[in-house]
Amino acid sequence: MDERHVEVAIIGAGTAGMSAYLEAVGTTADVLLIESGAYGTTCAKVGCMPSKLLIAAADAAEAGRHAATFGVRYAPPEIDGPAVMRRIRALRDRFVGHMVETVESWPERHKIRARARFLDGHRLALEDGSKPIGLVRAGRIVIATGARPRVPAMFAPLGDRAITSDDLFELDDLPRSMAVFGGGVIGLELGQALHRLGVRVVLFGKGGRVAQLTDAEVTAHAAHLLVERFPFHPDADTRRVARTEDGIEVEHVVDGRSTVERFDLALVAAGRTPDLSGLDLEKAGLELDENGVPKCDGATRRCGESGIFIAGDADADPPLLHVAADTGKSAGAHAAGAERPQRSPLPAFLSITFCDPQIATVGETRRALEGRGADFAIGRLDWEDQGRARVMDVNAGLLHLYGERPTGRFLGAEMIGPQAEHLAHLLAWAKACDLTVEEMLERPFYHPCLEEGLRTALRRLRKDIERSPREPIPRCLDCGPGG
Questions:
Q1: pTM, rounded to two decimals
Q2: Same domain, yes or no, for 326 and 406?
């Protein structure tokens, strides 16, 4: 069988693989991108974009229901399930189409459709199904195979009545009812959106987890707010799931009493796991962690002293598009031997959950700070009495800012609250610039904006850092009323 020699082979053409390719070809033209499935990224096909399309439809329905507080009344919304799903698929396919066009525009000699598996640290066997189609010897190899939904064994008896986020957007219509399992980002976003679109939803969480939050006070506040908005059990005591003739049933314990509820479908949102199956990693001679994922250097993405690099969701990093893109760039540049290779720019880690209210974390979480024994202070803001939030009737949530006592540096934040996605970006930029709390307070804050609430929290953080007994002036003039 013919053996092809290349400088860099990249396994996977998702976000990380595409980013790795673009970096590598900037240094060498001897690159091969190997993809076994359809082109298109997780984000565009089954992740970020179709989920936000579902949420956009849900927000439109909720806006009418919420308007009465302003003295504006609408009739109850009429949800056209097939129309909702058609729009999701149409725009999803458009986003995927852009990705496909990009890859197809690259030189044919740089691509091959095949499944790859390791023969050793430099050789890959290529297969079409079970049919061998070639061998590749590469100086360096980048693993960018992405992730797949994790489906615990307890859901196996449900068969096709148990779906994942990969399956949801292929439905022709919204179901009448759905049990959602998992209180993480995916479960919260999709569960609340389906509820707002008229689907009877119960979200079964585990261990009190709420999205990516680690701060116990913020987590408890978030759980309270979300339980008020739709049926959500953050720490569900689920005893049994079973398939019925026309759906599923779930037995769980509420307030000490066993309850059985029936649904059309189960949405399993138990997270995603690196998709490394079939690669025969044991033949590559790599050191693996307890989950079977190759250990790598966080900056270069290189696995030990080998010529193998790993990036994106295939690694143990959080499965987020910007992380996949950054790590892919770093892996591609280092694999190609770039003179000034990319480093993974992750000092201001940013994660957002698009539920309502939105949830976000920036920089170091409280768990991380406590884990390393940091000496940190906390600036708190309850959104209940913030002026602009009250005007908009979105005055619900809790913001915790963390600052370092010895230096006054801003360290991170956890929050649930109005338009948290925008506040989180401001904070991520501040973290990336390594600003102190005092420097952040020197920046302008317009009135009346939600950002004034951020200034209030920063002032409280400064006070805690300085351990000052002086209380901030309540409702000071530069905050405006309710600032």
A1: 0.92
A2: no
